[in-house]
Amino acid sequence: MIFGVDYYPEHWDRTEWKNQAKLMREGNFNTVRMGEFAWKLFEKSEGEFDFSFLDEVIEILANEGIKTILGTPTAAPPKWLANKYDILQRDRYGRKREWGSRRECCANNPHYIEKSRIIVEEMARHFKDNKNVIAWQIDNEFGCHGSTRCFCENCRRQFGKWLGEKYADINELNKKWGSVFWSLDYDSFDDIILPGYNSCEIEYPPNFAHNPSLDLEFRRFSSDSWVKYQKMQIDILRKYTNLPITHNFMGHFSDIDYYKLAEDLDFVSWDNYPDTQWGAAEYEHISMAHENMRGVKNKNFIVMEEQSGPCGWDRVGSTPRPGQLRLWTYQAIAHGAEGIVYFRFRTALFGMEQYWYGVLDHDGVPRRRFYEIQKTGEELKKLEKYIVSAKNNYDALIVKSYDNVWGHEIKRHTEKYDYYNLLYSYYKANADLNICTAVSCGDYEKYKVVYMPSYNIVEKEEINKIEEYVKNGGVLVLTFRSGTRNTYNNIVPLPVPGVFAELAGIEVEEFDAPRREVTICGEIDATSKIWCDIIKPVSAKTLCTYGSEYYKGKAAITVNEYEKGKVYYVGCDLDEPAMKKLAALISNAAGIAMIEAPKGIEIIRRDAYTILLNHNEYEVSLPIKGKSLISGKDFDGRLEGYGAEFICEDDYMYEKY
Ligand code: GAL
User: pTM (2 decimals)?
Assistant: First the structure.
């Protein structure tokens, strides 16, 4: 199992390398990731390559039993490259991004592509026989620093080409996009514009008033551009190596379609920072991010950067409490991580990230954080056999669709609406009942319940799959703002909820984006403040009605029996306690076992053992007993603050282990 650190030997005097490697071994680390920002060191000037410093470091580390994951360095283009070629992105106002940070390059820029191709090939050729290299990481965090969408002339031309391949005939595009609106018909694919500054700004997100079809296609194209750029690098590496290839993703980040980005990779890895200068995330938010990362390939993953100290760029974040680094490690594992790499080994003395603390402080002295991680590494040696290739038994699925992320951003419905928040409210309600919940798409038949919150843009093939799932006995949950848009981001001429109306057995007569809280009563008492669909049941049964406003007494939540399955339609947002009641009601109907535990506790049952996580700073008592796979001792249900346990509840299984 990979247990490593992100390492930047180029930040330290070479006389320190040996001691640092020794200390890594003492910390129980067996892997480093290196190289992903070292382009200028590898290629001092155009065509002048030198990888010798890395050869030396890899060797030093190997002598301590530490293997290397190599990053291709294309996230940080050197100055000579930016001087010689116009490789920098243009923002949506057409302004050039300044060189001097990272990720400033455009994925469609032919010079950037060519120079990337060359450095990757040189690197791949150079390291191909190095037995101490165990995997490759492509680039670093595609899309970070707002770099997914570029508005340069190269992108405009490529976008026209991309559309040409998709639509073939420009009149077809005009028809599908409804370009007749405001006289926006194009005469040729060369005419295509990018949705940049046009003097007509709309508030959120920073968008201009463009045709919604253009906006959506541009997001798809921009995402595809990075997928293609990544594939270019993968193809080069593949000429030289069979080692596994990954890229470090960013959890909930959604500007790039991660399902597509993951397709060409052997495994997904991602960067997890639960508590930084920008605030502490709720633990369910982190769990959901892990699930999202597992879900993009439906495969266990690696955390390539795991927080190991207080984190910030211009201000510091709070210090991880004793136990929290270990807890976050086990939280990742519980949701599908089978390797952990901590960011970073020693805190940088210079550069942007002086406040982004690593395992060691600036002075390189091992202290509390080092020892906590060291101890975790020791434990993991014992636990490894339960972790690698372990599978969680998922009962529920939250469907995440990148098309819908973008669609909802382009046409946000109402000030308070947020697609992510809605998905999160469903994830959290399930997680708080300790229901094993995946975040992914497709393969519906694997789950007892499928939640499709605001699944608005629906592809034709998808409708059939969903219908099949329900027909065969599945439980589907739909919500307001579902089923009403087609793949071109246009509205379908059907009663709401559009393509789902028959499945849901309802018709939405009216809706309200309420200015004040609306009450809901029936099977669940609740309040709503973002959206209220006023439902006319056709074949569905009413579960809840509105308790206020002119639509008092009208249906708010319904359920429809459809062949062997059931379709719930939740016409409104619900407050947090009500969300949990709703998840319990649905899970009961679907035969899913739930475990009520105190707030802050996660109970994850996988294979024949259970992972317990306590995100509270105080001890809790749980109704779970068994043997600890970590200590080999009896576990009596008491879990310390920020504690984590692997419990075998079954004596027989424990003996078998
Ligand atoms: C990550 C990035 C790292 C480092 C870290 C701390 O997003 O991949 O290179 O910048 O954040 O800011």
Answer: 0.97
